[in-house]
Amino acid sequence: MSLFSRPRLYSPLPLRVLLILIGVGQIVGAVGLVGYLSFRNGQKAVNDLAGQLRHELTARIEQELQGYFETPHEINRLNADAFAQGLLDVNNAEFGESQLYQQMKIAPTVALAYCGSAQSGEFFGVLRVPEDGTLQLTYSNQSTNFLRNYARLDVSGGRSFFVRQTDTPYDSRQRPWYRAAALAERPTWTDIYIAFTTGLPNITASLPVYDRAGRNLIGVCAADVVLPEEFRAFLQDLEIGSSGQAFVIDRQGTLISNSTDEPLMTGSGETAEPLMATASQDHLVQATAEYLSTRFNGFEQIDQAQQLRFDIDGKAQFLEVLPFQDGFGLDWLIVVVVPETDFMAQINANTRNTVLLCVGALGLAIALSVVTARWITRPVLDISHASNRLAAGEMDQQVDPSSIAEINDLAQSFNTMSEKLQASFAALQQSEATNRAIVDTIPDLMIRANGEGVYLDIIGSDRLQGLHDGQHFRPGTSVHDSLPTELAAKRLRYIQQALTTGKLQVYEHHLLVNGQPQDEEVRILVLSTDEVLIMVRDITARKQAEEALRIAEENYRSIFENALEGIFQSSPNGHFINVNPALAKIYGYDSPADMTTHITNISEQLYVDTHRRQAFKRELEQQDTVKDFEYRCYCKDGSVIWTQIDARVVRDDQGQVLFYEGIVQDISERKQREDELRRQLEELQIEIDQQKREEEVARLTSSSYFQEVKQEISEVDIDEFWN
Questions:
Q1: What span, in angstroms and rounded, lies between the C-alpha atoms of 512 and 510?
Q2: CB count in 10 Å sphere of residue 21
Q3: Could you tell me what percent of the chain has a pLDDT over 90?
Q4: Which pTM does this prediction carry?
Q5: Closest by alpha carbon to 71, among 32, 105, 110, 98?
Q6: Contact in structure between 382 and 400 (CB atoms under 8 Å)
Q7: pLDDT tens digit sequence for 382-420
Q8: Cα 498 from Cα 483, distance rounded (Å)
């Protein structure tokens, strides 16, 4: 039986009979409904009117509260910024009162705007005098011995004259408004308390102020709102029937405000306490509060607007209660209660109904229902029969269109569904074949197991030999049956971790199979709340390759570190990526790290002739290799040596240059030998040339012609020659 199937308790009705019953039932129902509605019409009118009035009143009260209690937080934000920026001198009270003065002028609902310092409890603020509404500066700090001083402010917010000084030290850090903000670390409201200045019940919006780094508390800014004044006047101005009441309470049942003149505090002075709504002298307020407390088992359970009806002394009362929360800690209830007698003036419901015409309509409805049922059910039966054949596996089903638009749409939808089902079945078969091919291609052993490690299904048991074959590894067995104790516990631990975290778990383990080492990688993927897919792959070959690669890298590193020639890797922009100790030694550096740290521009710091660096790069770019390239270079100590470099370009898959690498040899001694040999050759050439000249002179002087000339010259009389 299907999970969603239910036992049939009755035989299904034919559609034709059902349509007739529906038509007749509608007529009968209409007659009864008209009578009932006529009876309830008057009462509903009263309820609707009362509900609209209550909803409108609570909405107006909520709107007023929002505006009434948003202003203090706006003032706090402005003053906190000024405090943090040093524009309010809270600690010394030397400047800043003009800003507070302007705020108090534009916010008549605020009784006191002020800030307290975390340094020593200093206080600085501007208050509204309850008697005449004038504004005064009040402050306390070390200069006043922490006694509150009061000074009159002029029309521009400047100090006019000293008024008075209290005789009780004032530490703002000990006040409820300061503690509430410091503890909450965000904007908040205090509980109702008696104001230090006015002696009236207050509620205060406070905001912690932090330094510019946002870590250290430097004080708290706050604004006081005196509860019984403006808001109570607003409630009293509301039109709540002739005897209705509106009041606001907190979650403990404390009366915050109401529309009567009843005092909101009991007692006086230090013993004054807020009045509980259930202790109100107003009978309507007191009875309503008791009803709400009893119905909801206290006031904390009321979390949404409620429209209720209850009786007081046998008289019905319409009640609406609406939670009010401002996001800063206020959590109050707005309550509006109106006696039903305020609405029941001259409401008389007309309860007479005419039902005689319904009898004729009933007969006509039966006849029309029979004809309509036959006309509608014929194409529906065709669709029903085609659906049955489709469910039996005959996918190629089509139904004829109907003249009824809705049934015609149904027929077209059925035909479309039939075509899509055919395509879906074909796609499903193809998908199954593809998935099966993928599963068969994957070299991993795949196991479906539950949270206890019991194997539910195994695919590819022949892909890993050794532990994963035999009678101990088949559906119904567990990890403890097929694995050594340590590996079984490890696998079960990862299964539980996967089910707990919902994340893929991957680990490796090493084992011996028939005396041969074997490494396996295990992946565990969550399939359901208590089922996982385990994929096991033999990674022995990969591990062996990694080990061989590690050995090769160690060999390369050994060659690199111990080579007599300098070996390097450098970037095209002219800094060394890697050098070996031999290269650092050639250039006179203490270590490879010392060399790579100091040389940041090879062309300027290493090459004596910078154009040779450009020639080196140009030859690399053209040929990708350089052989026997010689150049002069600077050592660390400034000396110049000759080096010879063989290098090549290393590129990535896209042909971009990654770095240069090569071998460097110090050829300074060879260059010196070459220079010495060149000098010796030049000297030898000079000696050879001198000897040749002497031999030529000897040959000329020994010739017969030279002798004849010499003889003739000797016979010449010099004096006679010149005369």
A1: 7
A2: 14
A3: 20
A4: 0.42
A5: 110
A6: yes
A7: 777 777 777 776 767 777 777 777 777 777 787 788 777
A8: 19
**What is the spatial distance between Cα 7 and Cα 22, in angstroms, rounded to a whole number?**
25
Geometric angle at alpha carbon 624, from 622 and 629, rounded to 5°: 90
Q: What is the DSSP letter of 590?
A: S
Nearest-angstrom CA–CA distance, 2 and 147: 82
**What is the pLDDT averaged over residues 103-109?**
88
pLDDT tens across 694-703, in order?
777 777 777 7
Residues forming a β-bridge with 164: 150
* Cα 602 → chain centroid: 46
Q: Pick from 139, 158, 136, 157: which is nearest to 148 by CA?
A: 139
Q: Are strands 505-513 and 455-459 parallel, antiparallel or unpaired?
A: unpaired
117 bridge partner residues: 219
Which whole-number Å values give the CA distances from 94 to 118, 143, 158, 675, in the listed order?
Answer: 18, 11, 11, 87
Q: What is the CA radius of gyration of the chain?
A: 52
Please report how the helices 230-237 and 15-85 are oriented relative to each other, as an axis angle in degrees rounded to 10. 150
- Cα-to-chain-centroid distance, residue 700: 108
* Per-residue pLDDT at 32: 64
Of 29, 21, 30, 14, which is closest to residue 366 (Cα–Cα)?
21
The answer to whether 27 and 358 have CB atoms below 8 angstroms apart is yes
Helices assigned H by DSSP within 442-529: 479-482, 485-501
Residues forming a β-bridge with 528 = 531
- Asked if 210 and 216 count as a contact pair (C-beta separation under 8 A), the reply is yes
In this prediction, residue 527 carries a pLDDT of 86
> In terms of C-beta density within 10 A (0-12 exposed, 13-18 middle, 19 or more buried), how is residue 221 classed?
buried
pLDDT at 2: 42
Q: Give the integer Cα–Cα distance in Å for 290 and 433.
A: 72
Residues 6+ apart with CB under 8 A from 117: 90, 91, 123, 124, 172, 218, 219
Contacts of 487 (CB under 8 A, 6+ apart): 509, 511
Rounded CA-CA distance 675/587 in Å is 22
Question: Integer distance in angstroms from the first to the last C-alpha of the chain?
Answer: 159
Joined tokens for residue 35: 């009578």
CA distances from 544 to 401, 513, 558, 703 (A): 71, 16, 21, 93
β partners of residue 613: none
Q: Where are the beta strands (DSSP E) in 348-496?
A: 445-450, 455-459
* Mean per-residue pLDDT, 156-177: 91
Strands 201-210 vs 217-226: parallel, antiparallel or unpaired: antiparallel
Count the Cβ atoms, other than its own, within 10 Å of residue 444.
19
Give me the DSSP letters along 629-694.
Answer: EEEEEE-TTS-EEEEEEEEEEEE-TTS-EEEEEEEEEE-HHHHHHHHHHHHHHHHHHHHHHHHHHH
What does the block give as tokens for 413? 């939808």
* Neighbouring residues of 723: CB distance < 8 A, sequence distance ≥ 6: none
- Element (DSSP H or E) covering residue 101: helix 97-106
Give residue 469's pLDDT.
55
Entry field: residues in the chain: 723
Q: Residue 298 — left, alpha, or beta (φ > 0 → left; ψ -120 to 50 → alpha)? A: left
Beta strand ranges found along 172-233 (DSSP E): 188-189, 193-194, 201-210, 217-226
Mean pLDDT, rounded, for 709-723: 65
Tokens of 385: 């029969």
Q: Where are the alpha helices (DSSP H) in 258-328?
A: 283-295
pLDDT at 265: 77
Q: Kindly report the average pLDDT of the chain as a whole number.
A: 81
- For 2, counting Cβ atoms within 10 Å of its Cβ (0-12 exposed, 13-18 middle, 19+ buried), the class is exposed
Position 349 scores a pLDDT of 44
